[in-house]
């Protein structure tokens, strides 16, 4: 049996057994992170509230989840947060991510699926860390136009949202200096636990790290060559061959093509279609192992009103799919096809 057949039958088994194991709890813990210091463009901090106003959490409730909204994270101010090497705002981001890590760890331990709404991608230092503290066997699927694995010394921008994985990956610590604010971070992942999907804008150090450490990576080139179906099968097989590991899905909205998610700080042409983006979410949801989700880099202040609406719409569709909404339709557990007799009850015919 080829691995592709075996993954297929595992996925089918997960589906047939009905509600995914974790999602069976039907409890979602939501954390808003109105955070923008990991990159230069203001506006991304408005996303958590805008996503709520757009109805994202209502949508999950309608789908049958109990949504526990922990509100927006409050940050400590660091007035003298000058750069360390070229790293911008290390103390602010470090302290915030420490808080985020603690919240996500707690939420995960309660058996809730942790849904973190960013904010820029630097917050994933906290979410992935917290998730790994609660679930040490976790693996990570990073859907993004960027690999966000620059080391502080190699980063061309100094923006922490492009360095997230260098702080978390054990094998990369020899390239990472002591950064003020980040002392608490325990590198909690192996490069073997990471799978990238959707990449198309990599800096030299990032490409070099991916090759040297043989990180599972499906760029848009592979999506074009293999199709999204095989990309998902292989990506899941490489980090989670028996589908028995908890999955953290870090979803950067800029993975999608700017045609469907224009309002984001670092858009890159040639991205995932909304269909590919939904397919990724549907397949990962179907494993029943999705226990932590980040939705990051929505910037509802960029572009026209129409661009902003479209980006919020796309984000809500992706999150719906992450929580089991399927394009082929869903049937509630106790659903019965209504018969005329029952539907007419209470009505009198004229
Ligand atoms: N999460 C993101 N949108 N990251 C963009 C990173 C861009 C670039 N690679 C950098 O290091 O600055
Ligand atoms: Mn990113
Ligand atoms: Mn990105």
* Proportion of residues in helical segments: 25-40%
In CATH, the topology is named: Arginase, Chain A
Distinct small molecules: arginine, manganese (II) ion
Largest sheet: number of strands, sense, barrel closure: 8 strands, parallel
Going by helix content, strand content and strand pairing, the class is alpha/beta
Task: Count all strands and give the number.
Answer: 8
Instruction: Indicate how many domains the architecture comprises.
Output: 1
Briefly characterize the structure:
Helix content is 37%, strand content 14%. By secondary structure, it is of the alpha/beta class.
Structural write-up:
Pathway: Nitrogen metabolism; urea cycle; L-ornithine and urea from L-arginine: step 1/1. One of its GO terms (biological process) is urea cycle. Belongs to the arginase family. The protein starts with a helix and ends in a 6-residue tail after the last helix. An eight-stranded parallel beta sheet has the order 2-1-3-8-7-4-5-6, sandwiched between helices. 37% of the residues lie in helices and 14% in strands. The N terminus is likely disordered. The protein is of the alpha/beta class and 350 residues long. It has a single domain, classed as Ureohydrolase domain (Arginase, Chain A, 3-Layer(aba) Sandwich). The structure holds arginine and manganese (II) ion (2 copies). One manganese (II) ion binds next to loops.
Supply the key terms.
350 residues; alpha/beta; Arginase, Chain A; eight-stranded parallel β-sheet; 12 helices; 8 strands; 37% helix; 14% strand; disordered N terminus; binds arginine; binds manganese (II) ion
């Amino acid at each position: 049996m080829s691995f592709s057949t075996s993954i297929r039958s595992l996925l089918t088994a997960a589906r047939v057994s009905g509600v995914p194991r974790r999602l069976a709890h039907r409890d979602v813990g939501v954390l808003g992170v109105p955070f923008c210091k990991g990159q230069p463009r203001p506006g991304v901090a408005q996303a958590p509230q805008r996503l709520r106003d757009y109805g994202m959490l209502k949508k999950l409730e309608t789908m049958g989840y109990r949504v526990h909204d922990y509100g927006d994270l409050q940050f400590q101010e660091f007035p003298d947060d000058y750069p360390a090497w070229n790293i911008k705002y290390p103390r602010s981001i470090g302290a915030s991510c420490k808080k985020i890590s603690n919240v996500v760890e707690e939420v995960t331990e309660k058996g809730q699926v942790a849904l973190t709404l960013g904010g820029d991608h630097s917050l994933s230092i906290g979410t992935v860390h917290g998730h790994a503290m609660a679930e040490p066997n976790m693996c990570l699927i990073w859907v993004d136009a960027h690999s966000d694995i620059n080391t502080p010394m190699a980063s061309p921008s100094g923006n922490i949202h492009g360095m997230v994985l260098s702080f978390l990956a054990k094998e990369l610590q020899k390239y990472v200096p002591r950064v003020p604010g980040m002392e608490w971070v325990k590198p909690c992942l192996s490069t073997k636990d990471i799978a990238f999907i959707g990449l198309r804008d990599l800096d030299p150090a990032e490409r070099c790290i991916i090759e040297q450490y043989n990180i599972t990576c499906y760029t848009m080139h592979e999506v074009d060559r293999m199709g999204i179906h095989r990309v998902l099968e292989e990506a899941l097989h490489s980090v989670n061959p028996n589908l028995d590991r908890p999955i953290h899905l870090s979803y950067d909205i800029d993975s999608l093509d700017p045609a469907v998610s224009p309002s984001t700080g670092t858009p890159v042409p040639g991205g995932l279609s909304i269909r590919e983006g939904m397919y990724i979410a549907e397949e990962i949801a179907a494993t029943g192992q999705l226990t932590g989700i980040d939705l990051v880099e929505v910037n509802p202040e960029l572009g026209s009103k129409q661009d902003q609406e479209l980006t919020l719409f796309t984000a809500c569709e992706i999150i719906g799919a992450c929580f089991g909404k399927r394009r082929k339709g869903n049937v509630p557990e106790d659903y019965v096809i209504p018969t005329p007799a029952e539907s007419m009850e209470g009505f009198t015919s004229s």
